[in-house]
Amino acid sequence: MSIASIIFLLVFAAAVWWFTRNVRRIRRNILLGRDVDRTDRRDERWALMAKVALGQSKMVVRPVAGLLHIVVYAGFVIINIEVLEIIIDGIFGTHRVFSFLGGFYDFLIGSFEFLALLTWVACAIFLIRRFVLRIKRFWSREMTAWPRTDAGLILTFEILLMSAFLLMNAADHTLQGMGSEHYISAGAFPVSAVLAGWLDFGSIDAATLIGIERFCWWFHIIGILGFLNYLPYSKHFHILLAFPNVWYSKLKPKTEMSEMPRVAAEVKSMLDPSIPPPPPPAEPAPGMPAEHFGAKDVFDLTWKSLMDAYTCTECGRCTSVCPANLTGKLLSPRKIVMDTRDRLEEVGHVIDSKGKWEDDGKDLFSRISEEELWACTTCNACTQACPVNIDPVEIILDMRRYLVMEQSKPSPSLNAMFTTIENNGAAWAFGPDKRMDWMKE
Amino acid sequence: MTQPLQVKTMAEYAASGEMPEVLFWIGCMGSFDDRARKITKAFVRILNKANVKFAVLGQEESCTGDPARRAGNEFLFQMQAMQNITILNGYGVKRIVTACPHCFNTVKNEYPVLGGQYEVMHHTQFINALIKEGRIKVEGGSFKGKRITFHDPCYLGRGNGEYEAPREVLLKLDAALVEMKRSKEKGLCCGAGGAQMWKEAEKGDKEVNVERTEEAVGTGAKIIAAGCPFCNTMLTDGVKAVGGEGKVVVKDIAELIAEAGEL
Fold first, then answer.
1. Is A71:A118 a contact under the CB 8 Å cutoff?
2. In the listed set B107, B129, B151, which residue is the last one of a domain according to the structure?
């Protein structure tokens, strides 16, 4: 085995190890959430995943961004078939190991080249939309320095990867033409042949060309492995979580609120003394916080809300249709989801450094204000707009439940509404005897 | 307006050993709010005209608990829900119709798990069914050719996927139905949901109902059709805020049908 092969194997193994470690960490964090069953109606879930995640059905609601996204998505998925060949070549020191496929191989490489070019162009347009046209949803309050940098890095990186892929092919193609040993004639190069012409590769000597080809090859594969390891630190992790997140979507009507079986059992027992009250809640696992009514911290949200938080790619479609946000209120559904993720990451870091959870004196309310929570109209425009079925409303309502049931802190005038429902069975201060007064008029 | 309203309570039906075909759940808005009471009456006129044997709960009706639940008060919601379910089940109610999408959503989706299983319809679905079954006939009357735009209630549309029934009913008026840019799945909220009706809006630079009313008025429609008493109030206030009073009216679909039939 050559030294190059050994280096490649080491880099590859390290990349896989580090990535696996981070994915397990994210999985552990998600599972800090409360349990909820989202495994019913499996056929429907697979169909939904095929349509919404694989088929990008909600992306194309906005045609320009949607179509460009499909180009990048297809480019990413399909060009990764090429990565398989790169890995085999890397390990065994072969060159274009799949070239025995003949005409089909030519077709594959040719298609990859077109896709790479399209992806390059789409990413460039995305960069222009974000940083030159400065589309509003990419520049709102929660899009602070890191989210903006993150987006810029991802797009730049994809452009570099595609450039390396095309340059590698351009050098390879030229070397094939020169009859260079090792560079067997294989593949079709509709894009890189033009590129080679522009760069006048034909006038460069073989040794330099081999240098360019090898550099791009290493840059491409190390870049991909590096990109893979960047994902767990980035909003770009959505490329993996989009699929399970859609599979585990809420299938119930959007405006149906989540159940609180414990409260239901208590009320049942209150109204009918023959029904025993529910047993007290189980002791929390050692070192874990006690259960709350509603959500004080990430532990009180469902694991699906936490998966939502890691799936969010900060596109801002939710916020751009939120009636509260559109009218200048503080609430931004995207911020709710990003804050949840950032808090969960913070909790994860505590567990990593201390070996277990220790109260750090913070919670979701350290990031999300009551003003934001009370501005929600529960209209579900955000859940409808989300291309990967994230549900910010559930987080908002769970936090409202905590404010009201544990803190007795509803938005001021809501107490009056509670009282009149309790006293009159009506949301306004009219007694039951007035219920049929409309008949008299 | 000539015929007196024919309304019987569930208790009256039970006393005579009869079962109505449907229970009309009026809701707090429909019972107490001056504007929404007109919707209640319009819907009753339609039910009377179609000879629907319906009942109301009268004094036995109580808030579904929707605003309490959205405001975070699960205990109060559960109390309301369980009391209502006890009454409904006590009468053996099977079918419910309501003119309020919030009551509709709660009774239809949130009561079953607590033991209240009913077939629940929104009044626009019910009216649409009455028309299809030939139990009432609708002709355009004064609305023929008029521009009407329909504002989707979030709890009917996005919440429960019903976009067509209200539109099918409106089309029976031979009116020119014009859609707002934000309609159906993309419909913009009126600003009342999620217990907003009972509180001041948070600080912002505009009211949600004004944003929505501007869009509705921008279609050139002289009639904004609504299917929710909360939306109706918000849009009516919105029309005042944008200076459209006297030029644009907000009407519930039940009111439009009742007026078209001169009921």
1. yes
2. B129
